[in-house]
Amino acid sequence: MTTDALWYLARGSGVVSLILFTVVVALGIGTRSGRAFAGLNRLVVASVHRSAALLALVFLTIHVVTLMFDPYAQLSLVDVLLPFGSGYRPFWVGLGTLALDLALAVTVTSLLRDRIGAKAWRAVHWLAYAMWPIAVVHGIGSGTDRDTVWMLALDAVCVISVVGVAVSTHPALRRPAKTLRTA
User: So where does this one cross the membrane (predicted)?
Assistant: First the structure.
């Protein structure tokens, strides 16, 4: 595979990962609200959430592996697993590594949910709310398209989507149940 092909594959898979993880986080927030979300019942939303998470992990794996073979980035396995040690943009790549580590923790505990229990799973699953913004900032700082209008717009849409879902499903904003007047 040529260097250009690796570069395009790494960029594209990173962008697709961002979009899919945005969907995953938005659906996770929507499911957590305990109400129907986007006109779908909770079971459908949870199923799409899990499927999108698996697909996001596939694209994240492609993103990371292609960067390990890219002669420009020259990331090693250590760079991919231990944050902030990369020779290539150490801070920004370190954020990506941190996001990857958090995603792996959420994934592993999700696979072991029946064995570790719901309480432990839920405690680790909250890391997804840290992973996503770290990944967004990683892309903004290290992405080669970070200064392009289309990428800035995509970042904005992702952030607005997650914040919008979080605000719209916040318990304080729920309409109170209608009560019958008795007079």
Answer: 6-30, 51-69, 89-112, 124-143, 149-173
